[in-house]
Design brief:
With about 170 residues, this protein is of the alpha+beta class. The chain is about 35% helix and about 25% strand. Strands 1, 2, 3, 4, 5 and 6 form a 6-stranded mixed beta sheet that branches. The chain starts with a helix and ends with a helix.
């Protein structure tokens, strides 16, 4: 546990950051975080085989969903953002099915990889990342979406009440 008061000094005033650029866009978005169960236990060779398995996932996913507003990944983590909850739930189900129907043995994996998937919806901010220039979606709702995935049961899709409310509204429209 790091005590920031001890490091900085309890009497040290922290200056407010200088003003930052205004985001290009603020809107309601549907967000999905997913990760591969047990990824950190894979050897480097098994990770290479996993990428081969995921090529098959990509091929099975081809054109089974509306366009994504953003897809970002790091390691086994995946963030997908869409404008609609209906589109994102279709994407999440297709992704889960593509993993479940994959041939792990043909890729040289000991077990079929499973996903944990969490869905959330809410207002987000969007701009270009100041260092990479890549599109960036951020805000407290992105953080909330990220907190759902780790508690999801492998192979299942969990969703927040906000996501379900948006999905219900879109389905009723």
């Amino acid at each position: 546990i790091i005590d920031l008061d001890e490091i900085v000094g309890a009497d040290t005033a922290i200056e407010a950051p200088s003003p930052v650029a205004v985001p290009d866009r603020q809107s309601v978005a549907a967000m999905m975080f997913a990760d591969i169960v047990g990824f950190s236990r894979l050897s480097d060779l098994e990770v290479a085989r996993l990428w081969s398995f995921m090529e098959g996932v990509r091929d099975r996913m081809h054109r089974k969903h509306p366009p994504c507003r953003l897809i970002d990944s790091w390691g086994d983590g995946l963030l997908v953002v869409m404008d609609t909850a209906l589109g994102l739930v279709d994407y999440a189900m297709a992704l889960n099915e593509a993993f479940a129907s994959g041939d792990a043995e043909a890729s040289g994996l000991p077990l079929r990889p499973q996903l944990r998937i969490g869905l959330h919806a809410g207002p987000v901010l969007e701009t270009d990342h100041p260092l990479t220039g890549q599109r960036l979606i951020y805000g407290s709702n992105v953080n909330r979406a990220a907190r759902i995935e780790p508690i999801s049961v492998p192979g299942k899709i969990y969703a927040s009440a906000q996501f379900v409310a948006l999905l219900t509204a879109e389905a009723s429209a």
